[in-house]
């Protein structure tokens, strides 16, 4: 298996990343929300300065693909006019904030997310690693515990706010008016006490004792994301997290999620669009597949075409990760079933990551169907 290049950072808008189909430009909407004007504007910019393909990432961001070095500058100006660009690359790299999509306008969740964004833009904000992130998961029950974040705000069983360091089963009780300062202080603690770790959970795994005061039990997430109606609107899946700009432009106000789903605000009967999934039993929802070759320069095989071939053969209880290389960007954690592309087919891994030792190698689609 060839060794993929580890770039060590996620793309941004001000610091894009080169891929096989051009620059990937990642937009980080405030509080995970886009207005109708912003969705229309993003779609138009994607068609003008990219290749018309839009990704919804596992960090609830929007990515434009196929941008060229020459088209990047006018794209940024267009995004700035839509209030979607940070003041600096440093601020952009710190502003990794996931927000539960089930907030109400003017509620505490919205206020906390806005305050955290402001704090991360201050000159004295901690210079955290590029993939280090925060989650504002302050609804009655947690919904973001399976998503990537290092510092979390949640509620305990008594509805009190707790600050959670990822990797711990307990949190620290905090008052709302102090919670953002406490979260920033925890990020500073991480930077002072870490060695070469870039993620909070890894630091604890390597033996660093937690700070004092983190003794309140967390709630355990029972929520399973699935398309369907919610009080805020319709939750709909995006096949593999990718949609064409033309379809994206038809959305009104939307909220992004880390589940490759979007919440269509105020909508209970979504439009029929190619790539939009409203059936919670659709097997495509149980397949995570990265961009793959040729769009990704490190991809060794196509991923999404084989995902569509395999989807009808998945058992209702099965979930599958298909990775174009051993990095496993789309699903860094272990998965029940993983296919990793190689130059001779696909390696088949059970209960592991894309780079783990395979149970079978060099499989074709026919072989994989038999192995499922």
Care to describe what's here?
This protein has three domains: 123 residues, Sulfite Reductase Hemoprotein, domain 2, CATH 3.90.480.20; 127 residues; 89 residues, Sulfite Reductase Hemoprotein, domain 1. The protein starts with 16 loop residues before the first strand and ends with a helix. By secondary structure, the chain is of the alpha+beta class. The strands form four sheets. Strands 3, 12, 13, 15, 16 and 17 form a six-stranded antiparallel beta sheet that branches. Strands 6-7-8-9-10-11 form a six-stranded mixed beta sheet, covered by helices on one side. It has a five-stranded antiparallel beta sheet with strand order 1-2-5-4-14. It has nine helices and 22 strands.
Oligomer: single chain
Number of helices: 9
Give the low-pLDDT segments: none
Distance between the termini: 22 Å
Using the CA coordinates, give the radius of gyration: 20 Å
Measured by DSSP, the beta-strand proportion falls in 15-25%
Biggest sheet layout? 6 strands, antiparallel
Summarize, please.
By secondary structure, this protein is α+β, with helices and mostly antiparallel strands. 24% of the residues lie in helices and 25% in strands.
